[in-house]
Design brief:
mainly alpha; Methane Monooxygenase Hydroxylase, Chain G, domain 1; 4 helices
Length: 133
């Protein structure tokens, strides 16, 4: 992989930014639940918009990682995909790989918590027509 360390460092940067974005999405989702409980429609609309903005930014970060992948030769793509899909930090060969695995795990945890909160919100709003039914 050409400039392997440089490429992996850029992936780490993008994952760190995405982690911060997903933590913000989780925070906004919690606030959204609180606003719904208080029947504060104005806040609900504002929070939905804020959350969507963060989700769009997270998608952009994911697209940047995909762009990095697409610039690599096939073997290097496979190596980076393997790192991105790995869940066992012990299998990391270097610092950057370890950070990628750790960050992906943290992002997945935040996403799972956010989805749990979102399920409750969706069921409150849509009842039996909820996305999660």
């Amino acid at each position: 992989m050409k400039n392997r360390e440089e490429l992996l460092t850029e992936v780490v940067r993008q994952l760190q930014k995405n982690y911060v974005r997903f933590v913000e999405i989780e925070r906004i989702t919690k606030e959204l639940g609180d606003a719904l409980s208080g029947d504060d429609r104005g806040s609900v609309q504002l929070l939905f918009g804020m959350r969507q903005e963060e989700m769009d930014r997270a998608s952009e970060g994911r697209e940047r990682i995909i762009t990095i992948l697409e610039t690599l030769e096939e073997a290097d793509q496979a190596e980076l995909r393997a790192i991105l899909n790995e869940t066992d930090v012990q299998k990391a060969e270097d610092f950057e790989s370890r950070k990628i695995i750790e960050l992906n795990g943290q992002i997945k945890s935040v996403l799972n918590r956010t989805i749990s909160i979102d399920k409750v919100i969706s069921r409150k709003l849509a009842g039996e027509h909820s996305y999660y039914q």
